[in-house]
Amino acid sequence: MAEKDGEMSFWDHIEALRGMLFHSVLGVALASIVFLAFPKPLFQAVFWPTRPDFPLYRLPGVEFSMDLINIDLSAQFFFYLKVALLCGLVIAFPYIIWEIWIFIAPALYDHEKKAVKKAFGLSSGLFYLGVLVGYFVVLPVCLMFFVNFSVSDAIVNTISLSSYMSLFTSMVFLIGILFEFPTVILVLSSLGIVTRQNLKQWRKYAAVIVLILAALITPSDPFSMFVLAVPLYGLFEFSILLCRNKVPAEE
């Protein structure tokens, strides 16, 4: 078994953690500043799912339009800051992953480093895939459900800016995080904690958990749940392919 890198004291670990957190926050801050400086293309992208020319609404038989209102004096300013910060976090995600890798790598053995490095390399691609699925598929489906749903013809849906921001964040960023599941499984498999056979035995439980997650994230109507549940379960099957067939032998 390969020896770990030089031993570090408790305070050395704290200092390394502080440096990792500082660099990560700085990366997010710099990316956010760019968005703050050029807000027009940013908000064109953020509000595109509310317009009828969004790709999903061009499908045959689909008609959708919505208007946003602001009922809070300071809401637009804080919306401006929150969106810039969120997008800065999305753009800086690979850099954050790199900083985390630099922080934990010295504590790993050589065979562990190879496996974890592969997982970290996969994580950014899966995160952005989740963001795209949330933005182009799940978010517009949820918007169509909420805007078109009404308990009475006497009630007109008027969507506030803050409620749209809440839905946008959960549908886009949260789904990006959920798409990190195969990364976690790859690390656990490489460390001998789970195997391919384990995951195959957990298929029926995974299907139930996926449906529960889809119900919590989406408006819980059958169609939007199905739209999110399919890629989430696909990630579980992808995780099975990434897993080892058996626990790795000690190196």
Description of the molecule:
- This protein is mainly α.
- The protein has one domain (10-242).
- It is built from 10 helices and 2 strands, in the order ααβαααβααααα.
- It has helices at residues 10-37, 39-47, 75-91, 93-104, 110-148, 161-178, 181-190, 196-201, 203-217, 222-242, and strands spanning 68-69, 159-160.
- Strands 1-2 form a two-stranded parallel ribbon.
- Residues 1-5 have low confidence and may be disordered.
What's the topology here?
Layout: H1 10-37, H2 39-47, E1 68-69, H3 75-91, H4 93-104, H5 110-148, E2 159-160, H6 161-178, H7 181-190, H8 196-201, H9 203-217, H10 222-242
Parallel strand pairs: 1-2
Helix pairs in contact: 1-3, 1-4, 2-3, 3-6, 4-5, 5-6, 5-7, 5-10, 7-10, 9-10
Q: What percent of residues adopt helix (DSSP H or I)?
A: 55-70%
Give the domain tally: 1
Residue runs with pLDDT of under 50 for 5 or more positions? 1-5
Mean pLDDT: 84
Structural class of the secondary structure composition?
A: mainly alpha
Counted by DSSP, the helix tally is 10
Radius of gyration: 22 Å
Strand segment tally: 2
The succession of helices and strands, N to C, reads: HHEHHHEHHHHH
> Largest sheet, if any?
2 strands, parallel
Provide a brief overview of the structure:
This protein is an all-alpha fold.
Provide tags for this entry.
mainly alpha; 2% strand; 251 residues
